[in-house]
Amino acid sequence: MPSGVRDYLLRCRELATLCSQNGWIDDETLTIDVIDQQDGRLTCAVTFEEVVMEGAGCEAGRVPCYGRVRLGLDRDERVTGIEVL
């Protein structure tokens, strides 16, 4: 897997569309498995825990989330874009 993929996924907004409870991604739980890499594209399965908060600001729970993303790569294997599948 290209070295900048994890950093890119931790910064991008699109990955949050996989959240189901309007929470946020626990960066420590993000896992990335490469499914396919060809023609400047990288397809990955991602999993993470979504942190859900109560109105009082306390953690109400965690929800497991998962999905697939396709990343565009340039010649140097830097990520140029993302598509949530």
Helix share, percent:
under 10%
**Helix/strand/pairing class, anyone?**
mainly beta
* Spans of at least 5 consecutive residues with low confidence: none
How many strands, what sense, and barrel or not for the largest sheet?
Answer: 5 strands, antiparallel
Order of helices and strands: HEEEEE
Task: Tell me, rounded to a whole number, the average pLDDT.
Answer: 93
Q: Report the sheet-strand fraction.
A: over 45%
Plain-language structure description:
The protein has 85 residues and is mainly beta. It is built from 1 helix and 5 strands. It has one domain (5-84). It has one helix spanning 5-11; strands at residues 24-25, 31-38, 41-53, 59-73, 79-84. The chain starts with a helix and ends with a strand. The model has no long low-confidence stretch (mean pLDDT 93).
